[in-house]
Design goal:
With 431 residues, this protein is mostly helical. It has 17 helices and two strands. It has a single domain, classed as Growth Hormone, Chain: A, CATH 1.20.1250.20.
């Protein structure tokens, strides 16, 4: 098909549709069924596992593996973006990571403690596939949408992602709850991982069909080109010195994103371990219902946040959303009952979609006039990933040492407070 014009409805919809395709990973694998499945592999009183020559608390192990994956993404994404810029075909890189992630999800069908290293490799593939593809997906935003369209199309992508992932989660939930005994429930969870991989690979085809691939240079990739991405990051860092607004916003984003992403990655593990559900069946149902609540409310949250940013400005809206996150950390330290967890889930949903879509579009709007959007978004993604590595390591160490995730979640309070202070320092030009 011929290349569509920038800003065209079909192009914007095709871009946003990738959120529909890949968000099933974040919901089923990262946030709900896999954490429940992983926790169920352990005897309730013995949440320890030996891996890589050490004994870990089960939640700390998955936290450390997640942190390692994000470190890998942070290192390789500049290399990949540099190559993608040079050969002019970032779509192929986006496809590669999409398929690696989908294969990793399907591989989780064979996840077991007896094959812990292979199992963690499949988990690693899913995570690196998701975040690796996002490097190139996010960099398309300024290419396909004009500045005045970016807030709304970014929010639309997140909203589509939430709706699509909820649909598949309901199907997965029905599969799991249709079984009576624990072993059959676990088997249905394994099938759920396979459905995620198939959904992700299948629905991404429309996005890949419509998005422009760029102009291929036909040049061979040399050693200097491989490291060109790091040179580009250094160049972006140099340019930030002349763009105070963007630089200060990035500082704030680095800090609050560190906490947001950590909470989203560990929320179900926290609910599984720290909340008194009464029985294993009640726990499984309660946790999945909580995730459904988060997703449904998040659609509303993304839309409300987009409207609020239009009225009050992006920075003021982000400050308010960070304040709610800060209150949530404090509240979470004390919650013990399922009802309290549901209340927290509702509030998380309200601010989760909003802060993600608004953070992405605010960065896009603050960019200087440039055709080199991939380098800027690579810098954004690297900052986000390094933040997640630090956040997850701190969370994991506190969990491993103190034996309680409550202490870890309370510590994240400080990151949101620092984020608010740093957002106040962003120059007051209206965004």
């Amino acid at each position: 098909m011929g290349q569509l014009q920038k800003g065209s409805k079909k192009l914007l919809n095709a871009w946003a549709f990738y959120d529909w395709a890949n968000s099933v990973y974040t919901l089923t694998i990262a946030s709900s069924i896999f954490p429940i499945f992983y926790s169920a592999l352990f005897v309730s009183e013995i949440k320890r596992v030996v891996a890589f020559g050490y004994e870990f608390k089960s939640t700390a192990l998955i936290t450390f593996v997640t942190a390692f994956t994000f470190l890998v993404v942070a290192v390789i994404s500049p290399i990949l973006s540099g190559i993608a810029d040079y050969v002019g075909n970032k779509k192929n890189f986006m496809k590669f990571f999409c398929y690696v992630g989908a294969a990793g999800c399907i591989g989780l069908y064979w996840f077991s403690l007896d094959r812990i290293h292979l199992s963690m490799l499949f988990y690693f593939m899913g995570l690196i596939g998701y975040w690796g593809s996002l490097v190139f997906y996010n960099s398309y935003l300024p290419d396909i949408a004009y500045e005045e369209q970016q807030d709304s199309v970014s929010a639309k992508g997140f909203a589509m992602g939430y709706i699509g992932s909820v649909i598949l989660l309901i199907v997965n939930l029905a599969m799991v709850m249709s079984q009576e005994n624990g072993a059959d429930k676990m088997q249905m969870m394994r099938y759920s991982f396979v459905t995620v991989g198939i959904w992700w690979a299948l629905f991404s085809q429309y996005t890949f069909y419509v998005l422009p691939k760029g102009v291929s240079s036909g040049h061979k990739v040399t050693k200097s080109i491989i490291f060109n991405g790091f040179k580009e990051l250094k160049g972006v860092w140099g340019q930030l010195k002349e763009n105070l607004k963007l630089k200060r916003y990035l500082y704030a984003f680095f800090v609050f994103s560190m906490a947001v992403q950590t909470i989203m990655l560990v929320a179900v593990y926290f609910g599984e371990e720290e909340i008194a559900w009464g029985s294993d069946d009640a726990k499984t149902t309660g946790l999945i219902v909580s995730i459904l609540v988060i997703q449904v409310v998040a659609v509303v949250g993304a839309i409300l946040t987009s409207k609020a940013s239009s009225k009050f400005g992006n920075i003021k809206t982000l400050i308010f959303v960070n304040f709610i996150w800060m209150v949530l950390c404090f509240y979470s330290y004390f919650m013990e009952t399922p009802i309290q967890f549901y209340i927290a889930a509702s509030l998380v949903g309200l601010v989760m979609g909003g802060i993600q879509s608004l953070a992405r579009s605010t960065y896009s709007k603050f960019l200087p006039e440039t055709e080199d959007t991939t380098s800027y978004f690579s810098f954004y993604d690297v900052a986000e990933k390094i933040g997640i590595v630090i956040g997850m390591l701190i969370y994991g160490f506190i969990d491993q040492i103190t034996g309680s995730m409550r202490n870890s979640i309370l510590f994240l309070f400080l990151f949101f407070l620092a984020g608010i202070i740093l957002l106040y320092r962003v120059p007051k030009e209206e965004s």
